[in-house]
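User: Sequence recovery, please. Input:
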């Protein structure tokens, strides 16, 4: 968290925007793309990125975090199928997804020694896009195909897992992770 604060206080807004649009090295560009992808995953399944990050982190301060985040992610996958689950585009769920996307993107970039602020922005933007796209997909597909929503929800689960796994996995190991 102190690295995030240091990054925020040591750069001006124009410097941050410039770094966001023009990463200075290929490694930075790759991790910023992954932060966007992790944000997109957050838009589809909000708890999944935290579980994937915890699972991919070798040195967690508390090993129980892996279990806790995985239980939360599984709970969301189940809860998503319930008819009483509110739309992800309602204010509360959407703000939660934006915050989680920002946290996930910041953590991913900090872990790669890149700007956590840029990671947070890209994670939040990815979460916004994922939320809108996921909602549109889940509204459109059942009515277009007359196949029940639970089928499309399961495909969305698989897509979110695949995207998130690619985001937290090293490029050379990404194909083996799926």
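Assistant: Recovered sequence (178 residues):
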């Amino acid at each position: 968290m102190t690295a995030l604060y240091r990054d925020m206080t040591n750069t001006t807004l124009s410097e941050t925007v410039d770094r966001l649009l023009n990463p200075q090295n290929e490694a930075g560009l790759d991790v910023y793309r992954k932060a966007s992808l992790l944000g997109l995953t957050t838009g589809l399944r909000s708890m999944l990125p935290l579980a994937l990050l915890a699972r991919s982190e070798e040195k967690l301060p508390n090993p129980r975090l892996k279990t806790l985040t995985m239980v939360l992610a599984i709970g969301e996958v189940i809860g998503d199928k319930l008819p009483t689950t509110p739309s992800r585009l309602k204010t509360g769920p959407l703000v939660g997804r934006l915050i989680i996307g920002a946290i996930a993107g910041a953590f991913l970039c900090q872990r790669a020694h890149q700007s956590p602020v840029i990671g947070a922005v890209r994670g939040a933007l990815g979460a916004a896009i994922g939320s809108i796209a996921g909602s549109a997909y889940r509204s459109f597909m059942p009515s277009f195909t007359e196949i029940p929503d639970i089928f499309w929800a399961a495909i969305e689960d698989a897509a979110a897992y695949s995207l998130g796994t690619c985001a937290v996995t090293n490029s050379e190991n990404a194909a083996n992770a799926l």
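The two ends are 31 Å apart (CA to CA).
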